Amino acid sequence: MILVIAGATFREAVRSRAFLGLLIIFAICVALSRIVGWVSSTDGNLVTTNIVLSLQSLIGVLVAVATGTALVQAEIQSRTLYTVLSRPLPRWQFVVGKFAGLSAALAAGQAAMLAIGLAYLWITGAKVTGWLVVAGGLTIAEVLVMAAVSLCWTALTSPLLAAVLGLATYALGHAVASLPGLMHYLKGWQAPVAAGLASLVPDLGHFTYRDQAAHGIPINPGDVVMHLAYAGLWIALLVTITVAVFRRKQL
To answer: pLDDT-based confidence at 226, cuts 50/70/90?
Structure first.
């Protein structure tokens, strides 16, 4: 049953306007990124490569948040959720199936973005290395973590608030990486409070190797494995929380 729900979710996600619209926006922005490279005072190809990889992350997260927060709410409004859950189906299977389908759609979209971006870089004469693919793979892991975040917030709040909180989590997740350098500026209770808040969100800095890959600097395979495991742990935790909330949710 999980595979049935995952398949239906995948088809629903890839047909959504937000999914298709943001993919089109990505392609347009990639094409326009060359203009920024031309006017930059530094290496134009390097700037373009950084922009392409950053766009993959930003637009991928927007797709994850927009699609993730809308899927369950759309089923509630169309009342198909009641039909599904009226069957002898454990709610955890519904949640896992939804996340699996959403993850498959996002991974496919991310792979398409990465392929478009690398093809554009190659056509425009930028240096394309395997490290760009590795960095793109870590970005896919980041997007899947954010999909789990969005699904969790959707179970806890309304779709609009879930979208806002999802984007806030994304911003905080990237700010966590700079926290160690800021700790000596904090005094008294501020430091432990900041550290406590930082532990409540995934550190998305683990997946940010875009600048290193753009410069052609090798990425340690051990670090890649560790960061993928980190993503898996966060996804498992967030899906577990979503299942726990969804079991008690009155539909």
So the answer is: very high
- Write out pLDDT tens, residues 59-107: 999 988 888 887 766 665 655 555 555 566 677 888 899 899 999 999 9
Q: Which amino acid is at 91?
A: R
pLDDT digits over 150-170, tens only? Answer: 999 988 888 889 889 999 999
More confident residue, 39 or 13: 13
Q: How many CA atoms lie within 13 A of 87 on its CB side?
A: 9
Q: Are 33 and 51 in contact (CB under 8 A)?
A: yes
- Burial tier of 178 (Cβ tally within 10 Å: 0-12, 13-18, 19+): exposed
Crossing angle (nearest 10°) for helices 130-156 and 44-78: 30
| Nearest Cα to Cα of residue 176 among 197, 190, 192 | 197
Q: Which residues contact 126 (CB under 8 A, 6 or more apart)?
A: 45, 46, 48, 49
**Hey, what are 120's tokens?**
């554009």
- The Cα-based distances of 175 to 9, 135, 245 in angstroms read 32, 19, 27
- Where does the chain have alpha helices with state H? 2-15, 17-39, 44-78, 80-85, 91-123, 130-156, 159-175, 179-182, 190-198, 210-214, 221-248
Phi/psi region, residue 93 (left: phi>0; alpha: psi -120 to 50; beta: rest), is alpha
Give which of 160, 134, 146, 115 is closest to 235, Cα–Cα: 146
Q: Measuring CA to CA, how many Å separate 183 from each of 75, 173, 197?
A: 44, 16, 13
